[in-house]
Amino acid sequence: MIRRVALAGGFLAIALVASSAWPVVGGALAHDHGVMGQTWGIVEPDLLDTIDRRLKTMQADGSIERMNAALRVKAQERVRNPLPVAGIGAVREGRSWTFDPSIVLDQDVRDQKGRLVAQAGQRVNPLSFVAMKTDLVFIDGRDDAQVDWAMKRWSAQNAKIIFVAGSPFDRMGEKKRRFFFDQQGKLTSHFGIAHVPAVVAPQGEVLRISEIEMPGAGA
């Protein structure tokens, strides 16, 4: 049966179907309409196969070897020219202080025969057992004045000259002397050094740390 209802000057047709012959499921009409159109299975490329094909292509055209060569050059460049230690500046006013290198052991220390040398929790000063025979001299390796100053004051036997910036390799070829580098600023951070030139020297069972103003630096 169809009823027509007037709405806003027009007609709205509402089909009301009532037939006990049609099955009703859950209060709704159910009817099998069959397959509506063609269906396909879900097809996705295998990720590992894709990566494998890509790598084989890159290997065949030489891309991998070029990448490896570029990485080697970059690594060598970083070794030869390490990043400067952050936060280290030139000395403008000298200062000096002492540093106690003592540590607290987190476990027992025994000799080769198993005899207790020091026990966990004990405070130990390394300078009580091992003498520090050379000074540590920290400089900016990019500054010719600092390099020449350090080399004139300390022989290779009396000190280790440690760069906080600049290439120790380039300077070794130039000066014919071995230089070192404070990797990631671990030594300067440990000693509280903020300016260079700086010297760490043994003084009994403590270390004397001095940030030294270069001649003419304040001019």
UniProtKB/TrEMBL annotation:
Give the NCBIfam families listed for this entry. TraW (TIGR02743)
Question: What InterPro entries does its record include?
Answer: TraW (IPR014114)
Top-level division of the source organism's lineage: Bacteria
Tell me what organism the protein belongs to: Novosphingobium clariflavum
Q: What is this protein called?
A: Type-F conjugative transfer system protein TraW
